[in-house]
């Protein structure tokens, strides 16, 4: 079997689309289709069932998928063993993360990792949703809850805290806030309720807040509204150093959440990813502690 054909097979199996597979491989969809047809002819088996929803692996395709993924890991492991400076990490690693972590914690941590490993290429994918590691949307993902399904390894990284926050500008002209019930007289910034992708992010009710006046699925948008004096919202304590002029409101009322590192179970065989994940988790612990101490 031609390894290039196997890479095409993996891309289609993960994206379930010739167009998306072609985009990831930087070839046109017609070429992807021809390569799949060639592989099917060589193996004497239909690997994908085409439907309006896309290309879903058949039973034969599913059986081939596990072998193809092991071959991919072996190829990557071989490349890692001979590339770069001994002792240093190299190659590309993609990390998925919720946008709070991706905007206010990961950049500093990854920059320090790059300082020690200049041949490494780190990509941060910041999206307000869960990542599908089975489809290789990322090499690893940081999440706010521990997944319970799939062939995944889950490691708790660290706790972090959330508090109510508002700008000094807003508070100077707003009704006084002495207890949670006083929040009903204020404009609230928060998530769009039907776009909350993880139950751990549905925290306004814990502050007794029902109605959200200014809503976004982005933590950064919410924080910018709060910085601009638009209202009161829940902010990450680790984001406060990046938001001068924003102060905590009712500081005794705060929530605790956790970050988890999630990886595909088969990736435990890859020394490069094991080493990177160890450095990343320790860096995240230190950075969250440093940023929260600053507030």
TrEMBL record:
Pfam families: HTH_1, LysR_substrate. Residues 1-58 form the HTH lysR-type domain. InterPro entries: LysR-type_TF_proteobact-type, LysR_HTH_N, LysR_subst-bd, WH-like_DNA-bd_sf, WH_DNA-bd_sf. GO terms for molecular function: DNA-binding transcription factor activity; sequence-specific DNA binding. One of its GO terms (biological process) is DNA-templated transcription. The keyword Transcription applies. Keywords: DNA-binding, Transcription, Transcription regulation. Belongs to the LysR transcriptional regulatory family. This is Transcriptional regulator, LysR family. It comes from Poseidonocella pacifica.
């Amino acid at each position: 079997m031609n390894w290039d054909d196997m890479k095409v097979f993996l891309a289609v199996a993960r994206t379930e689309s010739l167009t998306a597979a072609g985009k990831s491989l930087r070839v046109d969809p017609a070429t992807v289709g021809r390569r799949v047809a060639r592989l099917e002819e060589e193996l004497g088996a239909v690997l994908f069932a085409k439907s309006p929803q896309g290309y879903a692996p058949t039973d034969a395709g599913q059986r081939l998928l596990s072998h193809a993924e092991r071959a991919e890991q072996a190829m990557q492991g071989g490349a890692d063993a001979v590339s770069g400076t001994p002792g240093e990490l190299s190659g590309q690693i993609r990390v998925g993360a919720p946008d709070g972590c991706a905007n206010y914690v990961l950049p500093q941590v990854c920059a320090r990792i790059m300082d020690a490993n200049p041949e490494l290429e780190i990509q941060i994918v910041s999206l307000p949703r869960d990542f599908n590691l089975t489809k290789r949307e990322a090499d690893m993902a940081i999440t706010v809850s521990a997944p319970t399904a799939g062939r995944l390894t889950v490691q708790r990284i660290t706790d972090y805290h959330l508090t109510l926050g508002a700008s000094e500008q807003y508070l100077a002209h707003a009704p006084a806030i002495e207890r949670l019930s006083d929040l009903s007289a204020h404009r609230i910034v928060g998530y769009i309720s039907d776009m909350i992708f993880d139950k751990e992010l549905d925290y306004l009710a814990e502050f007794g807040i029902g109605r959200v006046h200014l809503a976004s699925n982005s933590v950064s948008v919410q924080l910018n509204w709060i910085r601009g004096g638009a209202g009161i919202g829940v902010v990450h304590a680790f984001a406060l150093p990046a938001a001068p002029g924003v102060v905590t409101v009712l500081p005794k009322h705060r929530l605790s959440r956790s970050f988890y590192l999630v990886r595909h179970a088969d990736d435990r065989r890859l020394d490069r990813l094991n080493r990177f994940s160890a450095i990343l988790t320790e860096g995240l612990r230190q950075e969250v502690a440093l940023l929260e101490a600053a507030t």
